[in-house]
Write a structure and sequence with these properties.
- The strands form three sheets. A six-stranded parallel sheet has the order 2-1-3-4-5-11, with helices on both faces. A four-stranded parallel sheet has the order 7-6-8-9, sandwiched between helices.
- By secondary structure, the chain is of the alpha/beta class.
- It is built from 13 helices and twelve strands.
- It has three domains: about 55 residues, lambda repressor-like DNA-binding domains (434 Repressor (Amino-terminal Domain), Orthogonal Bundle), CATH 1.10.260; about 130 residues, Rossmann fold (3-Layer(aba) Sandwich), CATH 3.40.50; about 130 residues, Rossmann fold.
- The protein is elongated.
Length: about 350
C-alpha cells in the first residue's frame, strides 16, 4: 500500500499544501470546518509528516548534528544527555557522529551534515581543542558555520568569530589548587594532558598562576603531561613515585588521569589521601563511585549540553547571541583529598 503524503491529504481535503502544513504545525489560524476536515483525514490515514517534506515546507529538518571526539569518555555522553534534554522541548532530534579524534572524519561528518541539511551543529573536541590548528581545518569549519548555525563546545579556533559555549577551565583549575593549598599542601604536582591541546595549556597556566599567587614553588620535575587516559595517569604516577622527593598532592588534568594516579598509588602501597591527595577534573559519574571517591571539579556537563542547544536554537531563530557563553565550574570535595600527613 502506497504511503499517504501531505499532497494526498491536501487533494482530498480540497485545500492547499500550506493549509495542511498550518494544521500540522499549528503555525497560523485555519477555519474551524477546514481544520476538522484535515484532522479527520490525518486520523483516517494515520498520517505522519515526512521529514523531507517538512524540510521543504518549513526550510528546516528538525535535526541537530553533533560531532564528539570520543563516546567512550563518559564526559561527552553526559554533555549529549543535557543537549538531548533541551532539544526534546522543541522537537529536535540528533545526528550523532563519533570522530575518534580523527580530523578527516570530522571533515567527512561536516560534509554529511551539510548534505542532510541539519538545522544546526554542535562541535566538541578534535580540531577545536588544538593549540595550533591547520588553516584548512579552520577555514572548513568557518565556511560550514557560514551556512549552518554552529556552536563550539569547550573549544575554539583563533582569529574566528565562531560561537562558543564553555566551562571556565582556568577558574576550575584555580578552585582545585586553592582547595589543596587551604588543606595545607605546599608541594603540589600536575599530571596528564597533551601539550598540543588547549585544555592542557589553559590548566597548566592556571595551575602556575594559583601557585604563584600563593607564593609557592612550582617544581618542574613534578609537572608531568602525557595524555588524558587512565593508563597515562598510572604511567606518570609511577614516574613520580620513582623520584627521591614527591609532592604531597597532585592535580590531574581530568578524572580518567586521576583514577589512574590513584590506582598506581594504591598498588604501590600508598594510602590516598593520607600519603598523597589527588584532585581530578570533569566530575564524570565514575568519580562518585570510585574508591576513594574522587575530589574533582565539575564542568556541569549536563548543563553545558543544555546551554549549547539553547544557544544553537537562538541562532537558528536568527536571534543575536554572545560570542562566548561561559559556565562557572564547581569544586566537588570527596574522599581523595585531605590535609598532608607531613
Amino acid at each position: 500500500m502506497r504511503q499517504v503524503t501531505i499532497y494526498d491529504i491536501a487533494k482530498e481535503a480540497e485545500v492547499s499544501i500550506s493549509t495542511v502544513s498550518r494544521v500540522l504545525n499549528d503555525t497560523a489560524p485555519v477555519k474551524g470546518s477546514t481544520r476538522a476536515k484535515i484532522e479527520e483525514l490525518i486520523q483516517k490515514y494515520n498520517f505522519q509528516p515526512n521529514a523531507m517534506a517538512r524540510s521543504l515546507l518549513k526550510q528546516e529538518t528538525g535535526i541537530i548534528g553533533v560531532i564528539v571526539p570520543d563516546l567512550t569518555n563518559p564526559f561527552f555522553p553526559e554533555v549529549f544527555a543535557g543537549a538531548e534534554h533541551e532539544a526534546q522541548q522543541s522537537g529536535h532530534t540528533f545526528l550523532l557522529s563519533n570522530s575518534i579524534g580523527d580530523y578527516a572524519k570530522e571533515s567527512e561528518y561536516l560534509s554529511i551534515m551539510r548534505e542532510k541539511r541539519v538545522d544546526g551543529i554542535m562541535f566538541l573536541g578534535g580540531r577545536i581543542n588544538l593549540r595550533h590548528c591547520e588553516e584548512h581545518l579552520v577555514q572548513e569549519l568557518v565556511q560550514c558555520a557560514s551556512v549552518i548555525p554552529t556552536v563550539l563546545v569547550n573549544g575554539g579556533l583563533r582569529n574566528t568569530d565562531l560561537i562558543r559555549v564553555a566551562t571556565d577551565e582556568s577558574a576550575g583549575t584555580a578552585l582545585a589548587v586553592r582547595h589543596l593549598i587551604e588543606l595545607g599542601h605546599t608541594e603540589i604536582g600536575f599530571i596528564g594532558g597533551e601539550s598540543n591541546m588547549t585544555t592542557t595549556s589553559i590548566k597548566l597556566r592556571a595551575f602556575r598562576k594559583a601557585m604563584k599567587d600563593a607564593e609557592l614553588e612550582v617544581r618542574e620535575e613534578w609537572m608531568l603531561p602525557d595524555s588524558f587516559s587512565i593508563d597515562s595517569g598510572k604511567r606518570q604516577m609511577l614516574n613520580l613515585l620513582a623520584m627521591k622527593e614527591r609532592p604531597t598532592a597532585v592535580f590531574c588534568v581530568n578524572d580518567y588521569t586521576a583514577i589512574g594516579v590513584i590506582k598506581a598509588g594504591v598498588e604501590a602501597g600508598l594510602s590516598i589521601p593520607d600519603d598523597m591527595s589527588v584532585v581530578g577534573f570533569d566530575d564524570i559519574p565514575l568519580a562518585h563511585h570510585f574508591i576513594p571517591e574522587l575530589t574533582t571539579v565539575s564542568q556541569q556537563a549536563h548543563e553545558l549540553g543544555r546551554t549549547a542547544v539553547k544557544v544553537l536554537k537562538a541562532m537558528m531563530s536568527n536571534e543575536k547571541v554572545k560570542k562566548l557563553t561561559s559556565l562557572e565550574p564547581q569544586l566537588v570535595v570527596r574522599q581523595s583529598s585531605g590535609a598532608p600527613m607531613r
